[in-house]
Hints:
Layout: E1 2-6, E2 13-17, H1 22-49, H2 57-74, H3 94-105
Antiparallel strand pairs: 1-2
Helix pairs in contact: 1-2
Amino acid sequence: MARPAVRAGRKEVVMQRLDEDVTNVREKLLLELVGTVVPAIARMRLAVSGAKPFEDERQCRTCVALARLAVSMVAGKMPLPEPPRRLAHPDLTEEEVLHLLDVCEGKCRSE
């Protein structure tokens, strides 16, 4: 949970994440990057085909940078994280999900 750390005599607030693991932050960042790379490549495809040219140089450079990032991800320099999969209903607790999984596997009977 994030909590603000207020320094004496200053009005600025610094947010600190005490419960966030570094690997979780890396995976979340990579997922966000993947979410931006795909639209950038699609946008480049439209520009190359002549269907919709880039609006300005900045947009072109951004798409090229994201495409280069995609190449490094595919090349194995930066592995893509697997998106979290939750096949159970979001209202179920983790304990309920595990119990239902045991029922499906025949380890216990449903109640």
